[in-house]
Design brief:
The complex is a heterodimer.
Chain A (H helix, E strand, L loop, with lengths): L18 H5 L9 H19 L1 H6 L5 H9 L18 H14 L1 H6 L1 H11 L6 H11 L4 E4 L13 E5 L2 E8 L10 E7 L5 E7 L5 E4 L14 E9 L4 E3 L9 H30 L16 H36 L5 H28 L17 H10 L4 H14 L14
Parallel strand pairs in A: 1-4
Antiparallel strand pairs in A: 2-3, 3-7, 4-5, 5-8, 6-7
Helix pairs in contact in A: 2-5, 5-9, 9-10, 9-11, 9-12, 10-11, 11-12, 11-13
Chain B lengths: L8 H17 L1 H7 L4 H9 L18 H14 L1 H6 L1 H11 L4 H12 L4 E4 L13 E5 L2 E8 L10 E9 L5 E9 L5 E4 L14 E9 L5 E2 L7 H30 L15 H36 L5 H28 L16 H11 L4 H14 L3 H9 L11
Parallel strand pairs in B: 1-4, 2-4
Antiparallel strand pairs in B: 2-3, 3-7, 4-5, 5-8, 6-7
Helix pairs in contact in B: 1-4, 4-8, 4-9, 6-8, 8-9, 8-10, 8-11, 9-10, 10-11, 10-12
The chains are: A alpha+beta, B alpha+beta.
């Protein structure tokens, strides 16, 4: 995977080009023109989003304009094939954009995660499938999809949200929590139980009668992902949008794909840590009399810490890039109908390993960045603690200890199956 | 070291336990509503937190410095803001106890025994510790204090505040001094404009002094005699960090015990889950070790304080007490920040709910740690070990005028 979003445009809004710009220049083969064009469209949007990140968090702004700007610049259709009106990017071409958005504001990556995953699901439908055509056209035209999957009061493996037949029509009823991004979305992709205990995924319009969304997610990080409660009461369902699909028993690369967005986001946070810490030190005049030098930027220990932070970002990008290349390979096998259970196991374990390599280091960097400054660096007006809070909440998806144990168990004894885990309350 | 008739550590801790339980119960709400702990600090003062170190015959408890530290760790576990808010007071008491000026000592011992608290006002935004713009100038035969201090932690809660200033004598000679002034005097204004993301209730804001009369008896020259104020101040922050580690450990235990839903591993009860067992085990071990290290530091500083009070302290005693405390910083910071981040590994998004405010532990630890970048201390310790340079030279540098760099272009 290339390591930066390419663009024909000159670096935006920077007073001076720094050595960092040179260091982060992509290596390897020149990107395709389509990728460069997308970079030119999206780079200014990312810059603007980054500039507003602290303010949005402080004032808890659910910024529909930012999502609209992303959509208008094509973020939500980067993977959609050119013939449908998208950019047709490969996964390796696409993910640097997710990383860049994560560096600008990780809330928005998370808010649009369900959309990205739905796009991947649609892309893997067989050619000529009406659902595939319909959705690729819709997404190219700007439709954004959120989700509603997790429930809070269910027993493990059970779903209380129901799709039922009501005379001639289908209806949806239930309550979902962590319905990330739905407040920003035009459609919601809901997981429910269908007739006779079937597992069904259904898309309903976010503004359909009977849907109530509450921004009651109160995590201390990722505060603006709108991961709140969505209630469905007698919502009419378009039968064409019913997709009967087993949730948990089939091996797949779905979990690895889902994890890839978190990994991209954590990698973006690592980038943001370096960016913000460099920025802070370059403008800092106040020092300690017992510091090594008059200016913090000249202090060897400050320089050392910046170097260490940058190595975390580098390692995260390298690890994530390797993982994306593997994911792309498995995705191609799946598209060709040639993927085996072993391929799914391999990509599942790779996702665990990437998570184990990236998440603790990013959390550590988000803590260590404060070693370059004094108490003023903790000012809420700078919002630098958001990096730790956001990374901590992202790392909360899927505890690392399980990941390490499952990886070790597979290496020792084999037998790991890439099946979807379930979330619920012990019976 | 305790004097005869002094309470044991367990007795001291038991004395504060019920009050600290109440203080802990209100910590999340105070944090959320940003309500400063005026009442809590007043209650602690009434229970004797500010006079533990005074001899029994002078209205105190005759507690050793290590015993005081044990109690402060308990206070920090209940609310780390309060320990930092008491930092100036704790240091001031030790200065009084070793003062050779009998009149000064007896005035302040009486004042402290009666429950008075002393804050501090040292740091400046415009000047710095060794070269303050805050000044005491003689006018019409009276000493008047003028200036503005930032990070005046605890002053808003205190009856007095210890101000560092430049004293301009009648002859124009200037020297560096500290002086305690009553916060009730007209001309002393404290504003809670501290906006850090952690330790939000320490009221480490700005105190302004406008023509505040100064009692010449309270003016003490700075830097003339060697003191242990540096390790005492450091141990205050280290105690706060250990208390936070204790709070993180016990709060995550309570969180897991109260949980019925084991989101990622539904077939296992939360308290038997491997992630919970490993996480709790690791953070408990690290908490125990940092606690032991900090208490040993307190014991050593306590022993040096006894020598100081007896007038038989040597440079070597200062050196070794300072070196020991300096060694604690980098490891305690790293471990406590690690603990406050790792507790979330027990799993589940519900641990991150704002209503629990579990992130305040990391935010508080991070903010306390930002008082001093730990690499400064680590470097001083390395210089001590490799080159025999006393940590004191690092501390003196810390108190020296800061060279003013040229303006940096933005």
């Amino acid at each position: 995977m290339p390591t930066d979003i390419p663009s024909d445009a000159a670096p935006q809004h920077r007073s001076a080009r720094t050595d960092r710009d040179v260091l982060s220049r992509p290596l390897g083969p020149a990107p395709r023109p389509e990728v460069r064009a997308a970079g030119a469209r999206l780079s200014p949007v990312f810059e603007e989003i980054a500039a507003g990140a602290v303010h949005r968090e402080t004032d808890h702004v659910i910024d529909h304009d930012a999502v609209t700007a992303l959509r208008d610049a094509g973020y939500t259709r980067l993977r959609v094939p050119v013939e449908y009106g998208g950019d047709g990017l490969s996964l390796a071409e696409f993910y640097p954009f997710v990383v860049a958005l994560g560096a600008a504001d990780p809330n928005l990556v998370q808010a649009l995660r369900a959309h990205l995953l739905w796009v991947e699901q649609v892309l893997l439908r067989p050619a000529g499938d009406p659902l595939r055509d319909r959705w690729l056209t819709r997404i190219a035209a700007g439709a954004i999809v959120g989700n509603a999957v997790t429930e809070t009061d269910n027993a493990a493996g059970q779903v209380t949200t129901r799709v039922t037949r009501d005379g001639e029509r289908w209806r949806l009823d239930g309550t979902k929590f962590y319905s990330t991004g739905s407040l920003y979305a035009d459609w919601i992709n809901v997981h429910a139980e269908g007739p006779e205990g079937t597992s069904v995924w259904v898309r309903v319009r976010a503004d359909a009668p009977g849907i109530t969304m509450t921004d009651d997610w109160d995590g201390f990080g990722q505060q603006l992902t709108a991961s709140g409660t969505t209630v469905f009461r007698d919502v009419t369902v378009d039968p064409d949008e019913l997709l009967f699909q087993q949730y948990s028993s089939e091996a797949s690369h779905a979990q690895a794909l889902a994890q890839s967005v978190h990994l991209a986001n954590l990698t973006g946070i690592a980038e943001a840590i370096v960016r913000d810490t460099v920025e802070y030190v370059r403008h800092r005049r106040r020092t300690y009399s017992h510091a090594n030098t008059a200016l913090p930027a000249d202090d060897p220990q400050v320089q050392q810490i910046i170097g260490e932070l940058s190595a975390v970002a580098y390692a995260a990008r390298a690890t994530f890039g390797t993982f994306v290349d593997q994911l792309e390979h498995v995705q191609a096998l799946v598209a060709a109908g040639a993927a085996t259970e072993d391929d799914f196991t391999a990509i599942d374990i790779a996702a665990y390993q990437a998570q184990l390599a990236i998440a603790p280091q990013v959390l550590r960097a988000a803590t260590q960045l404060f070693e370059v400054g004094g108490a003023s660096q903790t000012s809420r007006s700078r919002g630098l603690d958001r990096h730790w809070r956001n990374a901590r909440v992202l790392a909360q998806h899927n505890p690392l200890i399980y990941r390490a144990r499952l990886t070790g168990a597979h290496l020792l004894n084999g037998g790991h199956r890439a099946v979807q885990y379930t979330v619920g309350t012990a019976g | 070291m305790t004097t005869t008739g002094s309470p044991t550590t367990d007795q001291l801790r038991a004395r504060f336990a019920p009050l600290l339980e109440r203080i802990h119960a209100g910590a999340v709400e105070r944090e959320r509503d940003r309500r400063l702990p005026f009442a809590e600090i007043r209650e602690l003062a009434e229970a004797g937190i500010g006079r533990l170190r005074l001899p029994i015959e002078q209205g105190g408890f005759g507690a050793g410095f290590d015993q005081l530290t044990e109690v402060l760790i308990d206070v920090a576990a209940a609310d780390s803001n309060i320990v930092q808010a008491l930092r100036g007071h704790i240091g001031f008491v030790e200065e009084v106890l070793v003062s050779e000026d009998a009149e000064y000592r007896s005035f302040w011992l009486r004042e402290i025994a009666s429950g008075a608290l002393v804050g501090n006002a040292e740091t400046e935004k415009t000047g710095n510790y060794g070269n303050p713009v805050t000044r005491i100038v003689e006018r019409d035969g009276k000493l008047l204090l003028n200036g503005r201090k930032y990070y005046t932690t605890g002053t808003i809660f205190a009856d007095w505040t210890r101000v560092t200033a430049e004293l301009i004598g009648a002859d124009g000679e200037s020297s560096l001094v500290h002086v305690a002034v009553s916060t009730a005097q007209p001309g002393v204004t404290t504003v809670d404009d501290w906006d850090g993301f952690g330790q939000r209730l320490t009221a480490s804001g700005t105190t302004t002094f406008v023509d505040v009369p100064v009692d010449p008896r309270f003016v003490i020259p700075l830097g003339r005699d060697r003191t242990l104020i540096w390790p005492i101040y450091q141990l205050n922050l280290l105690s706060a960090l250990v208390g936070i580690a204790e709070a993180a450990t016990s709060e995550i235990v309570r969180f897991v015990q109260a949980k019925s839903r084991n989101a990622w591993n539904p077939l296992v009860a939360p308290s038997h889950d491997e992630a919970a067992l490993l996480t709790v085990g690791t953070v408990r071990s690290r908490t125990t070790l940092v606690r032991a290290g900090v208490l040993e530091g307190a014991r050593r500083v306590g022993a040096a304080l006894e020598l100081h009070r007896a007038g038989i302290i040597t440079d070597l005693d200062f050196d070794s007490a300072e070196a020991y405390v300096a060694q604690l910083w980098s490891v305690v910071i790293e471990d406590v920040l690690g603990i406050t981040s790792r507790i979330f590994e027990v799993g589940g998004a519900s641990a991150t709910a704002s209503s629990r405010q579990l992130d305040r532990l990391w935010r508080n630890a991070r903010t306390i740690s930002s008082n001093n970048p730990s690499f400064h201390q680590a470097r001083a310790v390395g210089d001590h070990e490799l080159n025999g340079v006393p940590v004191a030279s690092f501390i003196h540098a810390a108190l020296a005028p800061i060279p003013q760099p040229d303006a940096v272009t933005a």
